[in-house]
Amino acid sequence: MNDSLRWLGEHCYDPPMGHPGMRGGVSLTAVRGLPVAELLGRLRAREEEIAVPVRYRDFGLTADTASLRPCMYGTSGEWSYVLEGSGSSTWYERWFNDDPEVRPRPGEELVCLNPNIAVQPCWLAYAPGSEDTVWFTEFGESPLNSRKVDTTGKLAVLDAALRANGAVNPGPPQFRRRPDWVRFVREHHGGVPALVWQAVGDCLGIRIPRTDVEEGNLPIALLDDPFG
Fold first, then answer.
1. Which of 75, 91, 95, 181 has the greatest number of C-beta atoms within 10 Å?
2. Phi, psi (rounded to 5 degrees) for 110
3. Which DSSP string do the residues of 37-104 spell out, in sequence order?
4. pTM score > 0.90 for this model?
5. How confident is the model at residue 63 (pLDDT cuts 50, 70, 90)?
C-alpha cells in the first residue's frame, strides 16, 4: 500500500537518502488534534518556512542553515506529523533534554517512532492523551511492560495491534533468545522496524504518501538542533 508506514521501517537502517527526499533512517513525530504549525513551533521550526511553504526537494541548504535540521511535514486525518531523515527525532531528543515545549498537553495523543541510528535501540514513544505521561518502548517489546497505568485503554489497543502484526517478541517456547527472533523477523518479514511502523500506522490511522516523501514533494521546515 503506497501510504502504509511499513516501508519507512523496512529502510530504517539504510543510509540517509539526501535530496530529493527521504528513505533511510526516518523518524516520525505525530500529534492528533494539534495544528501542524503548532507542532512545528514546539519543535522550534523557523517561521519563514511555515509562512511560505517550499517543497523539500526545492530547498537548498546554505551556510546559514547548514546547522539546522530539515524536516518534512503534513497532516493525515486528525494527525499532524513531522518526518526527519537524520536517524533521530528532534522531539525525542528535546524530551530527554527536559524541554517543556515538547510535553504533550492533556488531551493530545502523541506518537514518535525514533530509529535512534547512532546509538540504538529504536524507540516507540506514545502518549494516549489522558495526561502528560509518555510511554517509551524498545522496538519488539510490549508497551504494557511498565509499572505506569494507562486509564484510557489506548495503550492496550496499541499493544494488541503490535502483537497482531508480529511486532512483539513472543519469547519462549517459540524463541528462547531475542536475537533468534530478530533474525527470523528480518529473514521472513522485512525486519522488526517494518512490523512496528506498519502496526502503529494502521492502528492509529496515520497514512503518509510514500511517493511524496521519496520525491521530496512535502513542504520543508528547519528545526533548531537540540544540541546546537
1. 91
2. -130, 145
3. HHHHHHTTB-HHHHHS--BGGG----TTTTTSEEEEEEEETTEEEEEE-SSS-HHHHHHHTT-GGGSP
4. yes
5. low
3-state secondary structure of 115: coil
Length of the chain counted residue by residue: 228
Strand pairing category for 109-114 and 79-84 = unpaired
Beta strands in 172-213 (DSSP E): none
Residue 114's DSSP bridge partners are: 123
**Whole-angstrom Cα distance, residue 139 to residue 199?**
11
Instruction: Please give the C-alpha separations between residue 201 and each of 63, 111, 161, 187, 204, in angstroms, as whole numbers.
Output: 36, 10, 10, 22, 5
- pLDDT tens, position by position, 177-224: 999 999 999 999 999 999 999 999 999 999 999 999 999 999 999 999
178: Cβ contacts below 8 Å, ≥ 6 apart: 140, 169
CA distance 115 to 125: 11
